[in-house]
Amino acid sequence: MSFLLYFLYICAMEKFQVHILGCGSALPTRHHLPASQVVSLRGKLFMMDCGEGAQLQCRRSHLKFANLNHIFLSHLHGDHCFGLIGLISTFGLQNRTSDLHIYGPVGLQEALQPQLDFFCTGIPYRVVMHEVSTKHSEVIFEDRSVSVTTIPLKHRVPCCGYLFREVQSLPHIRRDMIDFLKIPHYAINSIKEGAGWTTEDGKFFPHERLVTPAKRARSYAYLSDTTYLPQNAELVKGVDLLFHESTFLDRDKSFAKQTFHSTTKQAAEFAKMADVGRLMLGHYSSRYDDDNLFLEEAKEIFPNTILANEGLVVEV
User: What pLDDT does 169 receive?
Assistant: First the structure.
């Protein structure tokens, strides 16, 4: 592999991206598809919600199905999960063999298993379902790249959000120090993990002189379909990017209260309270023709706000 290709490969692996596949609410809208997003981190894909059309949007976004092994459902309303059985079926037709893990509130097994039994008998891989609590926050998934924590939400049915935290990588050992001190290959990992190095003549070099700091770990919180819950601000304090549903404008806050949704101003107030890096709005009601109305309201309170839109890729 040439140096250029290797460099491009490393850069791609270091990316933490959020792909917006759909950002509409339950009612059909001229502008948006039902809710679905994909986090891309270190070559792995994690899907949040799977509304109708999610698999087609994955193809349009050039996301590799083989890299998608974990799907996290916020709740079991159709606009957040009706695309699931089609995606599972497509994976089977592609002769997938690796397990697919699906996480969601209690009721996931009851809702999904009959569909699997009817439509997906004989698929060559396992669908593993994990029912999670929506009453308290807990880590439900961890690997070498990321941890995923639930965030309790309040909607008309059991619902939770998800917090993705990148695992902090080890510092980078300095190439010039490796050459200068003739550090053997077997010692590199221990130095990255905090050890120093002593030369043959007894001179000690502390860890800090041998490495450069790793990049700060990044984070993303996905909070969909919830009434305004300011108490959750501490759970997502300081995240780099926050997606918070903003189904209604402030003028329709009575509808938000009735339907257990949030307004744009509430989302912005939450982002300010949580001291997040950026706020992304979505889950727009079909009653509005101009998405910029959401952006204008939010920016009055939290200026670093963007709008979710199909095909958008956000770097975290």
Answer: 86
